[in-house]
Structures are given as C-alpha cells and as structure tokens.
Amino acid sequence: MKPAGIVRDVEENEITFVSPLKFKTGEFVAYLDRWVDPERYVLCRIIYSRSFKTFPDEFIEQAEISPKELIQFAGMDLEEYDSYLMTALVVGYYNEKLGEFKHPRAMPDSGEAIYLAGQEILKDISKLPADAQGAAILGVIPGTDVPVIMSVKDMVSQHLSVIASTGSGKSYTVGVLLEELMKPTNKASALVVDPHGEYSTLTEIMNRPEFREADYRPSVKIFRKETLKIRITELELDDILGILDLSDKMQHFFVTAYYSWKNGSQHKKSDLRREIEIQRNQANESTIDAILWRFDSVMRRGVFEDHLHTRLSDLFAPGQLTVVDLSGIGESDQQLIISALLRRLFDAREGTVNQRYPEGEERHLPYPAFIVLEEAHRYAPQNGEAKSKKILKTILSEGRKFGIGVCMVSQRPAKLDSDSLSQCMSQITMRIINHADQEQIASSIESMSRELLNELPALAKGEAIISGVSINTPVLIKIRERTTRHGGISRDAPEEWHTEWKKAKSIKAIPNIPRREFKPL
Amino acid sequence: MKIGSVVQVRSFTEYVVRVPVEADSGHVPASSLGVGSYVSIKSAQCLVIGVISNVLHNVKEELLPYLPGEKQEVFTPYLADFRSSYIIVTGVGSITCGRPSHTITCTPAIDDVAELMELQDIREFHTENGKPGFGYYRRLIRSADPAVATCSLDKAMEAMPECSKMLKALKKYTENRYEAGRHR
Asked: What is the mean pLDDT of residues A205-223?
C-alpha cells in the first residue's frame, strides 16, 4: 500500500496527520503497528479534516478573486495549500480470535506513514463474508466498493433500530434490509408492520431470480384490514377498555360484564354484549346504552371475530415476508392489533421453546421470527401509554431467548421509549437534524459516540451509520440500490396538480356549438 | 531611456548602477528615479530585469580633508565621479530571445547599460504565454525592503490595469506583513 500521509502528532485516542488527499469524515485509513507487529495494520476512522495551511486573509477578502489564482499569480507554491490536516480516531486492529477490533495501546509516532485502508483491512469491519449464511449486504463504504454486511443472527437475537428523519431514506433502507432477509442466504420469517401501505411493492421479490436458489422461492403475503382477523378472546381487558374510551362509571359496568363473560362458557362477541345488557336497570339505562353504542361501533369495524383469526403459521414461515398493511386503520386500533399479534407471537415462541406447545398445536411456532415495526414510536411511545408498549418491552428484553427479533423504525426517536430503543443492540442511523432526537439517540444507544452523533445532520440521503453488535465497528455506509421498487416515494405535488387541472379543464370544456340564427317573428 | 551603467555586481541579484547627474548627459535624471521602478540591463546573454531598491548619493570629497594624501587614492576610488548618484537594482528576472522569465538566469557585466522600462515593456515582462504573473514576488520581498515591493506593485498596476485587483491584494498582503514585522 502506498502512504497517503504522515503522522504529525497524537493525542489520547486520536492521530493527526498531513496528507495531500482530502479524506471525508467516516472514511478509513491505517498505520502499521510497528511496536507490536510491524505487519499489522491498525484501522482509524477520519473524524475531522481541514486545510493544512490556510490562505492569507488578504487573499480571501474579495470574492471575485480566486485565492488559488492569486497564489499562482504571485508565484507562490500552491501545493502548500493543497495539503490537509486530518484527525482520525483509532479503531484498532482486527483480532480474529476475538472476532473484534482491539485497541493497539501503542500509538504511532510523529513522522510515521498513514495508508489508505484497502479492501483487505476494510473487510474486517463486517462480521461475515458476503456469501455467508446470515449475511445482509446493505451497501458499501462510500468511495469504495467494499460491501458492508450485517450479521442477521445478531440483528434478530438482539434487535435493531432504524432511526432517520423523514425523507432521508428510512423506508428505502428497511426495504433493502427486508430484501436481504428474503435472499437464499437467510430465508427469513419476517413480518413488517406497514402503517402507510408502502411495502406492498416487495411482492416483486417472488418473481426476481436473485431471490431464488434451487427450489427456494420466497413468498410475500399482504394482510390488510379486510383480511386481518383477531379473535375477541385474544384481547385483554385493557385492550378493550382502550378502544371503547369509557368513563369511570361505564368502566365499572363493563369490567363486571367482562369478567362474567371471561369466566363463562360462551365467548362470542354477542355473549359479551349480553353480559353488558344484563346489568341494565332503571338507574343505569343511559350508561348501558352508551357502553353498548361504543361496543357495537368498535365490533362493526370487522377486525374482531368470534372464532376466525389469522393463524400465526399464516403470518410467519421461513422464506415468507408478511406485510401487515395497517393503512386506513386508526392509531388506537393499530396499537391493539399489534399488541394482540405480539402477545400471540411471544406466547407461541415461549411455549414452543419451553416445550409447552407440541407439534400440531396451533400455537406451535418452531422457528424464530423477525418483526419490523414502522413508526415504532406509535407502539412504544416515550411519553404516555400505548396498548402495545408492555408486550413490546417484554419482547425486547426477553425475546432473545425465544428467537423474536424486533426492528424498531422511527423518524422521531425523541418520541420513542428510551428503554425500548436501548434494547436494540444494532443500529442503522440516518440523517437526524433535530437536537432532541440526537440527544435521545445519545442517551439510548451505547455505541453512538459523540463523533458519530455529530455526523448525523450531515449525512446525505441514502447514507447511514451502522453500529452495534451486528458489525465489528461503526461504519458509514451508502445504502445499496433496491432490487424491488420503492413504495414510499415522495409525491410530486405540483406535477399532480398540473395533471389534475388539465383533466378537470378538459371535462369542463364546452363544445363549440354553432350559433343559431333567430328569425324575427 | 538610459539611466546609467553597471559599476558593481554585488551578488547574483544586486547590482550598482551609476546614474550621471548632469542634465545634458542624455540619461533620465536621477531625481526622477523612484524606488520600485523597473529597470532592464542589457547583458551579453540576456536582458536582466530588476527594480530599483535603493539610491546612494555619496559625496566623498567632504571627507577628503580628514584623510592623509596616500590614503585618498585608496578610499575614494570614485573621487573623479563625485557628482554621480548610484542606484541599487534588485534583479527579479530576465528576458531571453523575447521570452520573459521570473528567474534570474544571468547577471549583468560591468558597464552594461541600464534603462528605465516603458509600461509596455513592464507589461510584456509580466505576461508569459498570454497569462499575467508576478512570479518573483516572494523573492523580491525576501531580498528587498517590503516598501520596494509595494512600489513595484504600483508600477505593475499602471502597466497592467486589468490585474489591479490581484496586485492590490498582494500590496495589502505585503503592507500587512511589513506592519506585522515591525511590531514583532
């Protein structure tokens, strides 16, 4: 490797070097660890770069004069101004036995050479080779063709967060991740909760050759409110109370009715309604009517059924991506649906792992599952309660044992429960400008150093920082192109207005009727 | 416009030119030679270009009564020349076969004739391959007083008005450096 710069000085964990090359923040360089193993390269990540020598003030005072031209005009050495002073953070050398980067403890001396980190060194950033089982290639290190590969095993067992402000490519990135999960190297059982109906384009996976191998062909199922069914008995008292929005007095009668129904032998919706009705007397007639009115209006929505429900085996299967399209469903009902779904999944996996649910039993689910929660702050808000928050927190803390992985996707991490966020041990973090969101990330994500945090507002669309347990060291990545179409594109409002205006005008246009001649009577 | 002839070459970049003071000598009067003026000296190999960096008026006959007779010959070699003035020229470049260069490739010889450069000649010296340049700037501020550089920048500005913005920036830079140097 050719030297790309020379070390000027060293401070704590940082080295400062001079180079004629302009490195970008997040790029990697290396130096030889001559104190311990002269053959070994120590990886460093660029955190700051600036001009080595600045132009004289008089040369930059007038905007119409180029300081470089002025330097050349005066016969001065322009090369002096073409060098850069770079600060890089020492990442360490890759220890194959430990499978991680170790700090060398001996820093380089002034005058030592700095090399551009090549593929041989950069490949150690990823835990797995690209073609390995459990590899998810999300993109490349910018300016190189070195792929960044996340470990699906670590991602599923220790959860993942995808945090990005709106318009920075969040759902596109999730799409890439889901594509990777459905590739023959993973054959995942994944489900994505899609509140905006933007993941239905992933059905293209089924017809693309790159997702097939031998007899493997992934399937993509889409469940919408018409096809997604929840059995009434799967709801807990709090769930129903949450959607009915009852006053204290109403709650009193409803709770009584609920327990009578729960402990009874009949468990249909009509049975619960009857239990409410039974409590009617002259004093509470209007209250009972109000409860029944609310109960009927909720049950009419068609999601809650007496017997029918969507089986877990329909939702989860290896090589199957399930898109739960919740568009058109109110936020409260979305929480309820997800809450019921997560509870069933956790129960099934816990029962299967602990051998309570044998093969043949409906709740038997003998493989891990990965759930992607778009707009995760709706299901686990930082402030206030959500019906799904409790079970989600249980899964995030205990899911590892039972093979339930959660991917929390949010554009407002400040609104996302910090405990839940801190349980996600791998992170894909994209552009975040809001200070409160940055602070939430800083306080919830251990691997997010202040240097990485400072980079977040400057990330371009489609760039992300990947950190955590599914990668060996935090890395800036350019997300790869999606194989399938992206369903979450921003709408071109002026274009649509123009089209609609033209359409409306052509409809309203009055045909050219020839003028009639009126003859005087 | 002749100004005189070289009487001493002190170094590769510093030459002493004797400037006659007689009005009828056919030379530019010494009184009109300003610091920073561009001078060309025709030598055998090339045309040496320099700027006037200093002036010397040494009236040695005033000292004669204080010297013994045998020493007068030794210490006053220009005795017969007491009415002349001397200018110091700092070499900044050369022109060989019509091609200007901002490096000194040759030095003048004794008695080579020095001439004051016309604006057009100054302009040509500062134009190489159609591109204006002041490539000797650093050498000039190192070898001469910064005030000399600012004066020569003014002269260059007269010859190349289209480069005045760049030359003004250089002048300001020179003045500020000079100021900073004085305060140090």
From this structure: 92
Q: Do B166 and A65 touch (CB under 8 A)?
A: yes
In the A/B pair of chains, how many CB contacts fall below 8 A? 42
Residue A281 CA to its chain's centroid (Å): 52
Rounded Cα–Cα distance for residues A346 and A365 (Å): 10
pLDDT score for A320: 96
Are A333 and A303 a contacting pair, CB within 8 Å?
Answer: yes
* Chain B: residues touching A (Cβ < 8 Å): 102, 132-138, 163, 165-166, 169-170, 172-173, 176
Kindly list the structural domains of chain A, giving each domain's residue range(s) and its CATH number in brackets, ordered by start: 3-125 (no CATH), 135-228+310-479 (3.40.50.300), 234-299 (no CATH)
Whether B63 shows a pLDDT value over 70: the answer reads: no
So where are chain B's domains? Answer: 2-133
Nearest to B134 among A59, A61, A74 (CB): A74
CA dist., res. A454 & res. A458, Å (int):
8
How many angstroms separate the CA atoms of A153 and B115, rounded? 86
pTM of the model: 0.76
User: Which two tokens mark A192?
Assistant: 């994505």
Q: Looking at residue A234, what DSSP letter applies?
A: G
* ipTM of model: 0.84
| CB contact set of A164 (below 8 Å; sequence gap of 6+) | A170, A173, A411, A428, A429, A430, A431, A432, A464
Read off the tokens for A456: 């977040």
Predicted local distance difference test score (pLDDT) of residue A477: 93
Which residue from A152, A188, A160, A191 is spatially nearest to A367, judged by alpha carbons?
A: A188
